[in-house]
Every structure is written in C-alpha cells, then in structure tokens.
Amino acid sequence: MPPKTAIQPTRSEDFPEWYQQVIKAADLAENSETRGCMVIKPWGYGIWEQIQQQLDQRFKRTGVQNAYFPLLIPLSYLEKEAEHAEGFATECAVVTHHRLEAHKDEETGKTKMIPTGELAEPYVIRPTSETIIGAAFSRWVQSYRDLPLLINQWANVMRWEMRPRLFLRTAEFLWQEGHTAHETKEEAVEETRMIHRLYEEFLRDNLAIPVIPGEKTENERFPGADMTLTVEAMVQDKKAIQAGTSHYLAQNFSKAQDISFTGREGKIEHAHTTSWGVSTRLIGTLIMAHSDDDGLVCPPRVATQQIVIIPVTPKADTRDAVLDACEALAETLRGHRFHNEPLRVHVDSRDIPGKKWEWVKKGAPIRIEIGPRDLESRKVCLQRRDQASNEKAFVDKEEFIQNVTDILQDIHDNLLSAATSFRDENIAECADLEAFHKHWEQDNPGWLLTPWAGSSDQEDVLSKEHKITVRCLPLDKQDEAEAPCLVTGEPTKARALWGRSY
Amino acid sequence: MPPKTAIQPTRSEDFPEWYQQVIKAADLAENSETRGCMVIKPWGYGIWEQIQQQLDQRFKRTGVQNAYFPLLIPLSYLEKEAEHAEGFATECAVVTHHRLEAHKDEETGKTKMIPTGELAEPYVIRPTSETIIGAAFSRWVQSYRDLPLLINQWANVMRWEMRPRLFLRTAEFLWQEGHTAHETKEEAVEETRMIHRLYEEFLRDNLAIPVIPGEKTENERFPGADMTLTVEAMVQDKKAIQAGTSHYLAQNFSKAQDISFTGREGKIEHAHTTSWGVSTRLIGTLIMAHSDDDGLVCPPRVATQQIVIIPVTPKADTRDAVLDACEALAETLRGHRFHNEPLRVHVDSRDIPGKKWEWVKKGAPIRIEIGPRDLESRKVCLQRRDQASNEKAFVDKEEFIQNVTDILQDIHDNLLSAATSFRDENIAECADLEAFHKHWEQDNPGWLLTPWAGSSDQEDVLSKEHKITVRCLPLDKQDEAEAPCLVTGEPTKARALWGRSY
C-alpha cells in the first residue's frame, strides 16, 4: 500500500480530478451558480494580486500605461473586423435589455423579474477589447507624434465556454490585455516580440515555470492577427497550456477602425497594432505544474503568504510565551525583502486540530513551528513545501532569519529545475510518420518535435486524428539541420512542436 | 477684463460645463460609444490606481481579504430580497443570449451579427453584489467559528443611468465593495461604523477632502439596509456628493439567502451582514472639490505624477547637459518617500510648444523647470499647483530635494484647509420654515442644518419642492440643545443636513 496522501485521487490515478481536489483543499476557488463562472476565494485571489502587481511593474518599465475601457461592446464594432467577429461569435454574452419589471405570479404569490427596455442595438460583454480600444485609438492618434501608444487594461472578460474548468477555462476570467499602436511594422513586431520575452521571463522568474516560446501556425492564430507568439507550458500530465500570447495585428484592425495618422512625409497612414495578454489561467498552470499529492505547491514569489508560523501550545502556562515568540518572529521577517517586496508572513494562532496539514494543502512555501522547548533552545522547526511533507529541520532561529530569502529562492529554483527536467524528459524528436502515429496511442504522451513544412490542411488532419495541435513553432528551432517534413517529405529547417492541451 | 483662464467657461460662469472641460483638458477620461460608459485615460486611471492601492492597504490592516465573484447574477438571486430587487430593477443591464450569428444583408452585402442562443434564465450584470456574494457566504459560513467573514472585491459594476456624467454617474463604474458577516448585531454595527470612519479618514488624509459623516434617513437608505452611513463632501458649487457609504444590513440578506450558522449554544442563527463601497466617483469629487479655472488641482497623495520636471532647452549646445540634470534630479527624487511610497516623478523632454501649460491643466502638484543658467547657479524654478499659475520661486536645488516631501504635505494641507473653510462658510443653521424655503431660492445655495423630527413623508415633500435631500443626520449633531423641529414643531436634539447634490 502506498502511503495515504492528502489529496485523493493522486495525480497518477486521475489527474483532472486531482486538480479539482487540490483547488478545493487549498481553498483557491469554487464554482458558482452563474454558468461556467468561478468565485476566486481569498487564498487564490492573493496569488492573482501578486501576479498582477509583479507583471504590472514589468509592463510599466517598458513604458506601458494602464487605462480602462467599457465592458460592453456595440455589435457594430464587432462587425467591422469579420475574421475577429467570427472567431468570437459562438461564445458572446449578449445584453439586450436595460430594465427589469416585477411581475407577481398569481398562483405562487412570488415576484418574478422580467427583462424589459429592449435596446435598439445590443451589446456584447467584451470577450477581448481590440474593437473598443481600437475605437478609442482612432480618436487619440492623429500624428506620428502620438505614436507609439502603449496601453494596458486589467479587466474581466467573458467567453461562453461549453466545458468550463476552474482557472483554465471559465466563462468569465480576469486578465490583462495590452494594446499598442506603432508607426511602422518593424516597431510593432518588436513590441510583440519584446512582450513575448517578458512573458517568458515572468513565467520563469516569478512562477518557476519553464516555457517553450514559439510562433503559432496559421490554424492557431488569434482571429485577426498576422502573427501570434505563444509561451507553452508543460504540466504534470504532459499536456500543454498556452500560458500567454502576443499578437502582431498588422494593419487589420487599424484599417477596420481607422486608426490613421499623418506620417512624417505628410501622408495619411494606418498604424500597426499589437495586443497581448495573460489571465487567471496562469493560476491553473502553476497548480498543474508544481503541486503534488498533498496539495498545492505555490512558487514563493506569488504565494499569498510565503511563510506560515504555527505556534505549538500543548500547555496553558507556556502558551502566551510561545504566541509572543511567533508574533515577534513574524514581525522580524516582515522587515526582510524578497525580490524587493516585504515578506508575507502569517501566524496561525487558531486553536483547532489539523491546522498543520491545512498549510501543506494550501502550499505555503515555508512552514515554521515553534513550541515551548524551542523558546529555550532558540531553534525553530522548519518545513519546506518543496520537500516531503514529513521532512523537518531544527535550525537556529537567528540563522533561519539570516537565510530566509535564500531558502525562498532555493525553493523557487528547485521548482523551476524539477519542472524543466520533467519537460525536457517528455519532449521527444520524431522524424517519421509511423512513429508519430504510434506516439499518440500512449496514455499521457509527451510532446513531439518534428520537421514541418506541411499545409494548414495537413496540420488539421493530423490534429483531428490524434486530438493534438501544433503548440508552436519553437523560436529556437527554426534553423535546424535540414530534414524531410513529416508529411510532405520536403527538406525543411523548421520544427513544429505537437501536443495535447488544455 | 479678468485674466484669461486655461479653462473656458470658468467655475462661476458655468460649473457643470467647467467640470467637463477640466476633465478634457487634464486628459482624464472621455465618453465612449457605449451608452453612458466612459473610457478612463491613463492620467485619470493613474489616480484610481493610487486610490485603490492606498485604500486596499487600509482595508487589509483591518483584517479584510480580497476575493472575486461573478459579474453575472441569476435573476432568481435578485428576486429573493424584494426591496433590494426593486431598488435596482430600473437600471439593470440584462444578458439574454450567449451567441451571435452572422447574417449577410442581401442588399448591402454587409454582415450583421444577430443574438442567438437564448438563455433559459437571464442574468443581470451586477449593479452591486450583495446577492451573489451572499450566496457564497451561505456556503462558507457553517459555524460561529467561521465568523467574522471580512471580504472585499475590486470590480466593475453597471447601473443603466439615464443622465450620465463622467466619473460622477456612469452606466459602468469601478469600485470596491466590502461584504462582511458577523455573529452579532453589535459586531456588524461596529464594522459598519469602523469602515465609515476609515472612509472619512481616507478622504481627509489622502484626498484632502473634508466630509460630514452621518446617517442617511430611511428615504435615502440603501435598498435592503437597516442603517446607511455616508460621508458627504461639498464641492465648489456648494452641491453635495455622497462620496462613500457603509450599510448595516441586519439579517435582511442573511435570511433571504440563508447565511446561517450553528451558534455558541448549538442553535442555528442568521448572520448579521454589512456592505460598504466607494467608486471612481471619488475622482469626480476630487476634481470638483479642488480644481480651479486653470484645470485640475490634484491632491498630492493620489496624483499620477507628483512632480513634473520640465527641461528648458533654448540652445542646442546646452541641451544635453540640461536633460541630464533633469534626469539626475528625477532619479534622486524617486529615492525619496512620501507617506511610505516612492515619489512619482516625470521628466517631460518632448520638444513641443505649450507643454508647461499642459502640466498646469493636468494638475501636477509640483512643476520644476531647469534651464542652462540653473546648471551653474544650482537652483531650480519651483511652481506649486496650490499657488497662482504664474507664481515662481527660484530655490536652491539641494534645499528643494531636502524639503520636497514637506512641500507635498504642505500642498495637501492647503487644499484640505481651503476646502474645509469653504464648506464651513457654506453650511448655515436654520430653525425656521420660512427662512428654509427662502434659502433654496438662491443661486447655488449652500447646505442647511435644521432641527429635525419629521416623518419620511414630510421629508419627501420638502425634498421635492426644492430639489434637495437630507444629505445625512450628521453624527456629531444628534445630541444638540433641544429645538423645535422645522415641520412638526416638536422639540428635538437631532439635526438634519439638507442640500442639493450630484
């Protein structure tokens, strides 16, 4: 019998169900009665607050400014960019009325609210804001001197998902959407690439998730984009998660919405625009990337609380002294900074059973226990979430205080290195169509890297047959030694990365 | 002829139009094509980011945690609390469909998107979230040990306003809504009052706005509340703005939504709940409270940029040296902290005419000019937005750096003291119904404080006759010397504060 784990089922028994159970046990989020929409609970929302703040700082350093645009988009805006409208049409929540009227049901005596006040033009709740932000840009941009325009919005968006899954795919989600306009193609493409690199670095340095940066094939592009760059993460069932995207929109939206300006030569030109975003999906990604059969393992930089101190108070006469020592340690630690932010430290002084395991399941990176005996020995009992749940170290308190940020960094590094090894072990190269077909018959197959010069249709055939997609054309694999394409046989330097995905 | 002002019309000529023009000149926000909804531009959104961050810190210090709840509320939730539903029914945006279908118009050849996929149960976009957060609370609260539950949400909400006005009254606005549940009435009332004091302090200490804290009469209460506390600000046309409210909801919502728990005695009890909020309306309030005929005057703690440095570069050969000096000064200043936040400093090195006036209109608290001669003299030209727009002081650069945070605090103090004097000069006491009627015949009448023991109906009659409302029963005026009520003649210790409002 394997040892009993805090989460049932385990990852190997049933990965999707394990994921739901981790979210529940760690108290991160729950489903609501609004179809496909989640409630993000404080322990989960705290992670989002960290992600938001840390990404926001990175954006601002590149000159981006935040703004806010309307939630509701007039239908006529969507109609202007046909490909875009079509891409989102099947998942739009539509507002058609602006009042309710109370009607009393004669039989039950209950009041029912009935929509009334029909709108002449319905609105959709933004699934993304290219069209409404584009309308503002067309007012703001008059001259080349107004460019580049670098805007970001933190907002909720809505896509009516048929198969919702907490954090990964919900009808409403929180995200940031950057929208920029530039004078030239070169500048817009460079912005698209710069943000793509920013996402890669953020995932690596803040979430301990190694990603494969690459370009989407035409089949997988954002509706209306000329180029979509993506960062692809592998999670523990070897599926892929598209963790962030950055789009070069060329002049497609600026022509549909008249984002035009007087250029340096005095001629009217259309701007080149970009858009890029990451969402609360990042939380789903980090859960699936790092957690174990005892619950959430949260990367330290974005943990709601980085250190939880648990007073051990078996006797009434030493209780106050232990609690005081815990509070004093917490205050000392809060004076330290990790990546320039004060440490987030919580003292759990509740008098309830089972609280130690609660913090294991909730993924606090460091747990500290202090009991009566530790007061004299000036030691603390240190437990790290990147180690086995029963592993303990008794360390000198002063030494712990001195080393605390190194320990947090070490936990981060360990998570990143484990995720990197796992990913690298599960990407195989494959040059042969027969082996390709065979690969996808496995349970939880990893990713495949193949020489690729096929058409969109050929890609589509393989995708449908195996329920896979080209996750991306990895940026650093587009100038390999020539090899025959998997389907056409044509020699190619390019490589495609295939996988199943969420 | 009075001197020409940057804003036309002036405050005394046409206050509402002056307000629109300040928003435009300061580039804070603009109307969008979505009915009644605004675009908040970077210079305005920056103020909101400061408000958010500073309020959030205050909330968290009281034990409040952030979370996020669905945008869409099932109609059935609204129906549970009849008074609440009725209060918001006339201004609800209703989602009735979840897809669009493209239809090609045979005549024009254009594609039109038509709503389809009708929902069995429509949703409203939250006008406020008592009902949907209450549904979550009913799942979360089981025992008295789960209480108090202290939750806040930063979100967008929607109320279909018929006469929108930027920041003050828009169909969509941004806000925070706190929702708490408590074991006893006493605890819930104390939470309501504590947050009320927090709002008063925040407005005074962060926005330089003095408010009158008080209780709303029954006529003016939040739909579904037993007690509504408000902070009322007077702006420069002597109208009132309700800047924030805190509601004691008794067991009204907890009974409608079954937020019940096993109490200390083992019996099932219903929680006592509160809710409280402030919104982007605060930005409208600070504009109307402090700005002048040259544009925005922004209180320093929430200014998007607190200091703008303007290089004066008349000659090419000293241009680089001046720019370098400006950047160096900015870097030095950014190392200083004002109320524990690094100073926000911008260098405007654009080569365009009129940029000095732009920063007057945008309300930057401190403007610094540095020109070639200042390099040798080691002086800077200092201009403060709380002083006349042409007032300049040449001060020693090192001295300025030493004093910069004191200057910012002094600007704050001056704004607060001017607003306080203005308000106090414009609140009159009135004990006589004839004088009361006469008062409201004036242009821009101030507020009136009157002895009050009237009924809701009597209040209603006076309100309608003069287009006024009881802004509040000021907390510190409910135990005055007995005086006869304005309408009933009955002796009363209570006082009501009347005024016109936005």
Automatic annotation (TrEMBL), chains A, B:
EC number: 6.1.1.15
UniProt catalytic activity: tRNA(Pro) + L-proline + ATP = L-prolyl-tRNA(Pro) + AMP + diphosphate
Compartments where found: Cytoplasm
SMART domains membership: ProRS-C_1
Aminoacyl-transfer RNA synthetases class-II family profile domain: residues covered: 44-299
A Gene Ontology molecular function term of the record: ATP binding
Keywords from the named record: Aminoacyl-tRNA synthetase, ATP-binding, Cytoplasm, Ligase, Nucleotide-binding, Protein biosynthesis
Assembly: Homodimer.
Protein name per Swiss-Prot or TrEMBL: Proline--tRNA ligase
